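request received
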Amino acid sequence: MTSSDGSASAPRLTLLDAGRRTALEIRYAVAAAFRSGGLPGTSETAAALLTDGIVGPALARSNVVRTLPDAPRSQAVAALRDLVQAVELPAGCPAFDAIRTRSDDFRARLEHAGCVEDAPMPGEIASLFGILDEVVARLYGGLDVSVRRPAVHLALGRLHSDQVAGLLDSSALSGSCRWIDGSDLVSVVTLSVRDDAFDWDCACHLPYVLAHELVCHAYQGTAVADGAEPRLQVDGSCAWSEGWMDVIALWLVEGWVRGDQEGKPAWIVQEATDVLRACSALNARRIGAQATLPPIQRSRRIYARRAVDRLLAELDRFGDGDGDADLGGGRNRVLAFSLALNALRLPQSDRDRVVDALGVALETSFGIDRDELIAAVVDFSATGDMVALRRTLADYEG
Amino acid sequence: MSQNLKIKRGLLRLGRATVRELAAFADANESTVRNYLTERRDLCTREEVAPAGRGRPSLTWTLTPSGRAVLREELRAEMLASDDPAIDEERATALEHVKTSLRDLDEHLAGLEAGDVSEDRDAAFAYLRARTKALSRAVGRLAGSGPSLVAEEIALRGIDGRLDALDERRQAVEAVTEVVRESISDGMSAWVRRLAGDIGRTVRGAVGTGDVFVPDGVTDLGPVLIIDASGPFVGSDPLLDAARRANAPAMCLHVPMLAEAEMASLLTQVASSCAELAGSWTRLVYRYDSRHPESRSLLDSFGTVDDARWQASYPIEPSRIPGPHPGDVHVRHAKRMLGVAGRFASGLDPAPRRLPGQSGSPVFEASSPRIVALWCDAAEPSVVRKGSRSGAGWMFEGAPMTPDEAMVAVRVSPADLLGTMAATSPPHAGPTALAAQGRPTREAAVTASGIASAD
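response:
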């Protein structure tokens, strides 16, 4: 799970118990192999067979294996593979052919499920995390401001089946990140999964949930210039991290899913539209009304997002420029500013003060003041000079 | 706006730009931009630069420090001198944004004034204050550039006044909360024990694991206010449902975790809710959920967990249970909640209200204590009953208790609770009642704070 080659020794990670891990492996395999359940052609018989003969029993089995001891659990997984193999599929029909292909994929994915005691999670999730970590590391590494790459680990956590409040009404996944810095910077991202609920939508949410933790939190405070200071953790009320940077996370995912980088899981390549739709919907849900999100925090997130949009509108006016336009010229420029600020070791209050002032500035400045504001943002991207940025923003602070 | 002016603005903004970028910004031909830059070698230098490590090197024009100073002066002079519609448009856009922000602020303030319990009032207050100040400056800048902004200035003054009023109210709540917090340390334990005794005598014991049953024959519970502090769970829903099934108006306030500042907010909100419903709330239920791993830590800290039962239900290794040191966060949490309960127990209306026609500082009104704080557990009645003496769900009886212990002592199943609600008259535990039991009431301190109180 270590996604970088940092020299830090691996931290103790949270793991699911073996039963739940196997259940997740089955559910992930169902999602990745059968996806949204659509089939070529219109065949009600095939659709019913897929639902009632394969997916339904697989999901039911995933619930059962959670409470089984090791040996019966492995047997249950093997029995599930046999059950799927035994389903009779007429030849010569595109829908049944598709089911056959997907069933083979499903069975292959389950080959080692429930058998590898130390396997922390479906390998493809770990692999996806590793790929995204490389993408994020490359982005931070490309900044004019020097950052020290942290060792980033992925742990798996569990959400109770009752945990459906707030954002969890839209996804069975949630992410968190903690730092255990010593002589090296070490970030541990925990992907928590709600029991019994991992499905195709959740699979589609994975890139965004992981990208958010990586780009917003795992690499936060990694600027070399601030090396002597400890990194300062933020909480969920941080408008910068959960509002502004969250937009950057979505951009990153959009650029990555649409891009041609290698190593992406096949289902992401083939179902890019679904993935982008799901990630975008979850991103939008983060600023929707939630029982667990105080209105003021929600408002600040919205305000931060609005500020990103305004800055993007200004920086988009320069076109794509001559750089690699992974995200587009304007997005690249906003990205450079955002990552440079995120990399600084600032307390949450300072981050929020900047995003608040920037919001006001982008809304109310005009003429030469606006030019100076944009110049300060662009300069900051290159220098990471917080003092200069704050000097420009001072007039817009409350 | 002339193309040259646009090119200069673009150059000032990026500081280091390619001809293509400036052409896009200025909506000009690249040759026009190139010619202009070549003419203005006093402003910038030309070099091959890779843009921020994200691409191949390209010919880039970089503003020199002296060039930047020159450019600023030129731009300032040109923009002041010209009646450029583009600048007017920028100013109009800024004005629109100011108006939108004013509407945002008004909406937020209305929420705070209504006492939205989910709001972190301190943070919200500080944020709105800062935003108002920033907006005032923006209005000042805009007004200085020409347009009349009288309406906006008046609106901002109004917002400022409302913030002042809220601040006054907040400070009063904090002052009273502090007094009550002190007063409960002695009186609360006895109050809770007495309450527990009342309920213990009348409980009928209809329970169901994880479910809520309304006891037979219960038709009128009276209004129920539920404060759900069960974190991410939604376990208060069964309580709400049960209350409603018993024809009891019910309202649930979800408070995942109470910080010090949040408590003051909660007090105000609860009082506000009471006022809105003509003071008709009869029961306040404070709920925690033992299914949450962290709450198990609390149970551990009191040595009352039935480990075998727990393990059977939730087969997880204790070492894998995340959360704080046993009892740490949750005992603090319990103490805070005691503050809430104490306020109601002491019979004070917890929020100051401005009486009709009254001007000046708001006052605290007295009201009868009709709200009872209980720590209720919907999930594990069998766990919480361990150690019960009467079988009614109490874990601690008889022995002197600290306030923390007292909170644990009133851990009951919702069925017990609702049954009790139906069967008992509202307990009375105002200052006089506590004083009659020889408990300090801090009435003098309350009065000294300028806050009227009555039993």
